[in-house]
Design a protein that fits this description.
The chain has one domain (2-148): Cupredoxins -  blue copper proteins (Immunoglobulin-like, Sandwich), CATH 2.60.40.420. The protein is 32% helix and 35% strand. It has three helices and nine strands. The protein has helices at residues 2-35, 86-94, 137-140, and strands spanning 42-50, 53-55, 58-60, 66-73, 79-84, 106-109, 114-120, 126-131, 143-148. The strands form two sheets. A five-stranded mixed β-sheet has the order 3-9-8-5-6, with helices on one face. It has a four-stranded mixed β-sheet with strand order 2-1-4-7, covered by helices on one side. The longest helix has 34 residues, at 2-35. The protein is globular, with a radius of gyration of 16 Å. It binds copper (II) ion (CU).
Length: 149
């Protein structure tokens, strides 16, 4: 009986944190729309996480773009979407941060859910990476690239 009650509390906590995550995503979206007044538009790119792979695994944007990545996880397991250069990717691969939901360009996408995160693309032409660093996923090939040149 006790164990069952505890499980109920954990489920309630999990539901509450999911709700908070959803609210924070909405707040971020609203901020992006406000930014549009400045002339820059928000470009939306949908990336599916399916069978522990990103589809597409390569995207091309313009330098200076503001991009909203809509991340659709169709797998029955969690994934994450971390944008950054090799140094960022290595830090996350070695790191212990198990959950992301506040920093733009770093988002945990729970099993069978959709999340979005907004990334400001640098003005100078170049490229960067995105990847999932849950244990074993990067080694399995869960990574992609963003070109902006
Ligand atoms: Cu993953």
């Amino acid at each position: 009986m006790r164990i069952r009650e505890r499980r109920g509390i954990w489920i309630a906590l999990a539901a509450a944190s999911l709700l908070l995550a959803a609210v924070s995503v909405q707040v971020r979206s609203a901020e992006a729309h406000r930014d549009e007044g400045g002339g820059a538009s928000v470009r939306e790119i949908r990336i599916e996480m399916h069978h522990s792979a990103f589809e597409p695994d390569h995207v091309e944007v313009e330098p200076g773009d503001t991009v909203r990545f809509v991340l659709v996880n169709t797998d029955p397991i969690d994934h994450e979407f971390i944008v950054g250069d090799t140094g960022v990717q290595l830090a996350h691969e070695r790191g212990t941060e198990a959950h992301h939901r506040r920093k733009p360009g770093e988002m945990t996408v729970p099993a069978l859910t959709t999340r979005s995160t907004i990334v400001a693309v640098p003005e100078a032409p170049g490229s960067t990476l995105f990847a999932c660093h849950l244990p074993g996923h990067f080694a399995y090939g869960m990574a992609g690239s963003i070109m902006f040149d």
